[in-house]
C-alpha cells in the first residue's frame, strides 16, 4: 500500500497494515529506548496537518519522522520539509518515499533544533526527549511556532496552573517563552506498538525571546521545585542566598503556588 496524497488520509486499518509491512521489510524492531511508537490513527495525523496548515508555504523542520506518515502529507503544505531521523534504516526508507521538497537528514534532532533557522518545527516526539526538545526550542529564538506530539502527562505539565498537581519547572519554562495550547489527545491505541501512556498534541507560539543570562531562570526553578511543597519564603531564601525578610511578599504560599511573575520577581532581587 502507498500512502494516499492530499487530505484523504488512510484508514486506521490501512495505516496499521502499511506500518507493520514497512517495518518487517526494513527489518526494524521498534526500540523503546528511541521511543519508537508509530502513529497509525488518521485522527492523530489530522491534528498535525490542521495546525500546520496555518503555515502553508513555509519551510518546516520535523524531528523524528519515523516512517513518514506525517511527512508525506505535511510536504504538501510546506514549501520544504527538513526531516531529521536518528535511525539510519528509517531515514533511508523516508528518503525513498518522500517527495522532492523533503530533505531527509540522518542525525540527532535535538542538535538540529538548536541550530536551525527554520521558523516552524513539528514533531510527533519520542517521549524520551520531549522535555529536552522543549528546552532546546525555547533557546532558539528563530523558532516562532512549534507543534509537538508529547505524552499526555507532559502536555498537562506544560499547560498546568499554579497550585495544580502537574504544575512545575516545565510549566514555567514553557509559559515564560510561549503561548501554549493543548489541541487534542491521541489515545495510546493510536500507536503501534502501543505505548504505556496516551499522547497529546500541543502548539507553542513564541512570545518572548531567550536572553543572555536566562540560564539563571532554569537553575532557579530547578532549585525551587526540588522542594515544591514547602513554603516558598524558606526555599527561595536558600536558593537565592538572601534573608527571608526580603521575601515577605511571598506570604504563606508554597513553591507549587508561585506564578511566573513571582519567579521573575525573585530573579530581579539578585540581578
Task: Give a description of the structure.
The chain has a 7-stranded mixed beta sheet, sandwiched between helices. The chain folds into 2 domains: 12-206, Vaccinia Virus protein VP39 (Rossmann fold, 3-Layer(aba) Sandwich); 215-269, Orthogonal Bundle (Helicase, Ruva Protein, domain 3), CATH 1.10.8.100. It has 11 helices and 9 strands. The protein is of the alpha/beta class. The protein is elongated. The chain has helices at residues 12-26, 42-52, 71-74, 88-97, 109-115, 130-139, 152-159, 169-177, 215-224, 232-240, 260-269, and strands at 38-39, 59-63, 80-85, 102-106, 120-124, 145-151, 178-186, 191-192, 199-206. The chain starts with 11 loop residues before the first helix and ends with a helix. The model is unreliable at 1-6 (pLDDT under 50).
Task: Provide the domain count.
Answer: 2
Helix content: 25-40%
Distance between the termini: 60 Å
What series of H and E elements makes up the topology?
HEHEHEHEHEHEHHEEEHHH
Give a summary of the structure in a few sentences.
The protein is 38% helix and 18% strand. The protein is an alpha/beta fold and 271 residues long. The strands form two sheets. A seven-stranded mixed beta sheet has the order 4-3-2-5-6-9-7, sandwiched between helices. Strands 1-8 form a two-stranded antiparallel sheet.
Amino acid at each position: 500500500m502507498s500512502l494516499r496524497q492530499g487530505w484523504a488520509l488512510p484508514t486506521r486499518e490501512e495505516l496499521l497494515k502499511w506500518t507493520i509491512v514497512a517495518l518487517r521489510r526494513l527489518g526494524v524492531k521498534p526500540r523503546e529506548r528511541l521511543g519508537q511508537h508509530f502513529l497509525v490513527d488518521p485522527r492523530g495525523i489530522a491534528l498535525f496537518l490542521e495546525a500546520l496548515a496555518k503555515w502553508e508555504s513555509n519551510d518546516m523542520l520535523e524531528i523524528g519522522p519515523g516512517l513518514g506518515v506525517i511527512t508525506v502529507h505535511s510536504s504538501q503544505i510546506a514549501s520544504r520539509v527538513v526531516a531529521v531521523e536518528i535511525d539510519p534504516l528509517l531515514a533511508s526508507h523516508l528518503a525513498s518515499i518522500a517527495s522532492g521538497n523533503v530533505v531527509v537528514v540522518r542525525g540527532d534532532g535535538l542538535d538540529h533544533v538548536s541550530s536551525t533557522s527554520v521558523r516552524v518545527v513539528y514533531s510527533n516526539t519520542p517521549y524520551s526527549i520531549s522535555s529536552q526538545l522543549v528546552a532546546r526550542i525555547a533557546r532558539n529564538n528563530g523558532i516562532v511556532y512549534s507543534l509537538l506530539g508529547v505524552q499526555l502527562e507532559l502536555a498537562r505539565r506544560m499547560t498546568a496552573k499554579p497550585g495544580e498537581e502537574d504544575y512545575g519547572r516545565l510549566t514555567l519554562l514553557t509559559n515564560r517563552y510561549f503561548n501554549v495550547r493543548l489541541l487534542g489527545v491521541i489515545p495510546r491505541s493510536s500507536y503501534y506498538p502501543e505505548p504505556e501512556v496516551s499522547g497529546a498534541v500541543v502548539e507553542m507560539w513564541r512570545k518572548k525571546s531567550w536572553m543572555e543570562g536566562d540560564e539563571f531562570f532554569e537553575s532557579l526553578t530547578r532549585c525551587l521545585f526540588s522542594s515544591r511543597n514547602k513554603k516558598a519564603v524558606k526555599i527561595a531564601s536558600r536558593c537565592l542566598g538572601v534573608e527571608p525578610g526580603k521575601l515577605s511578599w511571598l506570604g504563606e504560599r508554597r513553591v507549587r503556588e508561585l506564578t511566573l511573575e513571582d519567579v521573575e520577581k525573585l530573579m530581579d532581587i539578585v540581578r
